[in-house]
């Protein structure tokens, strides 16, 4: 499969590096609006061609799929354009700005008989599969705690009065969308949509720089903390009446799974790849190689549930994006 990339940030670097280890996945073109940026990025990764015109990229008949890693607010626009040009789409998290946009791109992909996939690491990790296998050993779940906090390299600019994309309502930024989304994928992937959600956020200049989303279920609650204005060790703790699971380094990487039930403790790790993006790309490749639209649609249902929860959480904190209008 020949892939064209949209975006030149560090996540695209990691995507390209990981794709080298997945058979039949070849990045053959890249797009940036700035020619020097596009040229430099293409040279850096030894990519065959680059484009500064999005229509030219999407009109390239040698390209089968598009990887969208633009600023958050542009995920929807580029995904729609790619699908309308008959391209399969691998779209970075957060899937879109809101549930209305998510529903539209899902319907469009189904109408065009195209594969659409959200690039979210967590739910495709082997260690996440181990968690799913062992969660029943904890007995009834009562409490889930997840924290992914990372001091943003752009936060100092924000404090100085600038508005980097990741802290901009115009670009659908903020801690919930950009970083806490991993925690929500983790929880919703295991337990489904919550009965209710609220978000207590630190809001500065109309954007959340950190906050805690509280997801309530029948008999248990999950707190999802995410910050771009402070740092912390990442973790997930899942507490049941018989024991607990500790996910080392948190939901975004699931680097190790510690299970303690009674006096018994086990430490599990089924992951061999340092670049964890490998696992989501491999899942995408397998899905498409098997022409498995049922699996594709099941994953899209999950992405929609996460987006619906994100939207409700934002609303409870009074954070609005321009795309919500």
| Radius of gyration, taken over Cα atoms and rounded to an integer in Å | 19 Å
Structural class: alpha/beta
In DSSP terms (H or I, runs of 4 or more residues), the helix count works out at: 10
CATH superfamily of the largest domain: Dihydrodipicolinate Reductase, domain 2
Shape from CA axes? globular
Strand order of the largest sheet: 8-9-10-7-11-12-13-14
The helix/strand series, from N terminus to C terminus, equals: EHEHEHEHEHEHEHHEEEEEEEHH
Strand content: 25-35%
Uncertain stretches: none
- End-to-end separation in angstroms reads 37 Å
CATH architecture of the largest domain: 2-Layer Sandwich
**Percent helix:** 25-40%
Number of self-contained structural domains: 2
Domain GFO/IDH/MocA-like oxidoreductase: 137-245
Organism: Paenalkalicoccus suaedae
GO molecular function: nucleotide binding
InterPro entries: Gfo/Idh/MocA-like_OxRdtase_N (IPR000683), GFO_IDH_MocA-like_dom (IPR055170), NAD(P)-bd_dom_sf (IPR036291)
What are the SSEs and their pairings?
Layout: E1 2-6, H1 10-19, E2 26-31, H2 35-45, E3 49-51, H3 54-58, E4 65-68, H4 75-84, E5 88-92, H5 99-112, E6 116-119, H6 126-134, E7 141-149, H7 155-159, H8 175-191, E8 196-204, E9 207-217, E10 220-227, E11 235-240, E12 243-248, E13 256-261, E14 264-268, H9 277-289, H10 293-317
Parallel strand pairs: 1-2, 1-4, 2-3, 4-5, 5-6, 7-10
Antiparallel strand pairs: 7-11, 8-9, 9-10, 11-12, 12-13, 13-14
């Amino acid at each position: 499969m020949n892939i064209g990339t949209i975006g030149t940030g560090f996540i695209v670097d990691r995507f390209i590096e990981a794709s080298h280890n997945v058979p039949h996945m070849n990045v053959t073109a890249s797009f940036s609006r700035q020619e020097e940026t596009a040229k430099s990025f293409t040279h850096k990764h030894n990519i065959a061609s680059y484009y500064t015109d999005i229509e030219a990229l999407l009109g390239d008949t040698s390209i089968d799929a598009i990887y969208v890693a633009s600023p958050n607010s542009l995920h929807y626009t580029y995904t729609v354009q790619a699908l309308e040009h008959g391209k399969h789409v691998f779209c970075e998290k957060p899937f879109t700005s809101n549930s209305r946009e998510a529903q539209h791109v899902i319907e469009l992909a189904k109408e065009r008989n195209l594969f659409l996939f959200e690039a979210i690491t967590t739910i495709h990790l082997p260690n996440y599969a181990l968690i799913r296998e062992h969660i029943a050993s904890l007995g009834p779940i009562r409490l889930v705690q997840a924290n992914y906090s990372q001091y943003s390299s752009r936060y100092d600019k924000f404090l100085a009065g600038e508005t980097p994309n990741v802290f901009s309502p115009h670009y659908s930024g903020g801690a919930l969308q950009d970083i806490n989304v991993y925690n929500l994928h983790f929880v919703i992937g295991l337990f489904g949509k919550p009965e209710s959600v609220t978000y207590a956020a630190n809001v500065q200049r109309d954007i959340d720089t950190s906050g805690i989303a509280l997801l309530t279920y029948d008999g248990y609650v999950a707190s999802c903390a995410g910050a771009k204005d402070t740092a912390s060790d990442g973790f997930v703790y899942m507490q049941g009446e018989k024991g607990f699971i500790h996910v080392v380094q948190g939901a975004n990487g699931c680097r190790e799974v510690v299970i303690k039930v009674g006096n018994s403790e086990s430490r599990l790790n089924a992951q061999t790849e340092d670049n964890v993006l490998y696992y989501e790309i491999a899942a995408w490749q397998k899905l498409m190689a098997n022409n498995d639209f049922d699996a594709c649609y099941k994953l899209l249902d999950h992405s929609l549930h996460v987006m619906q929860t994100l939207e409700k959480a934002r609303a409870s904190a009074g954070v609005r994006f321009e795309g919500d209008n």
